[in-house]
Write a structure and sequence with these properties.
By secondary structure, the protein is mainly α. The protein contains five helices and no strands. The longest helix has 18 residues. It is globular and about 35 Å long.
């Protein structure tokens, strides 16, 4: 998480955004049992996490979008793994 914080700071994200992004990234990793590093996960794991938020967490679409933005930041800016095109069209809702 130090690397995530360092990149967030480099891009001048606010402290509150930094905290939320780190929280979402940790939840994402813990959701998958901390068995795999995020670099070894991708579209399937991201969609499963977002679906879980919607169905079990009953979060609003805007909250799902925030979680997605945090995870996209992780892949795009920290891990340098392009995933945006893969998840760009994920439908944010509770269905």
């Amino acid at each position: 998480m130090d690397q995530v914080r360092q990149v967030l700071s480099y891009h001048h994200y606010s402290y509150r955004t930094e905290k939320k992004y780190c929280d979402w990234i940790l939840l994402y990793v813990k959701f998958h049992g901390s068995r795999k590093h995020p670099k070894d996960m991708g579209k399937t794991e991201i969609e499963a996490f977002l679906r879980h938020l919607a169905t079990h967490g009953r979060v609003a679409a805007s909250t799902q979008r925030q979680a997605l933005n945090a995870i996209a930041f992780l892949y795009r800016d920290v891990l340098n793994i392009p995933i945006a095109g893969q998840i760009l069209h994920f439908r944010m809702d509770t269905s």
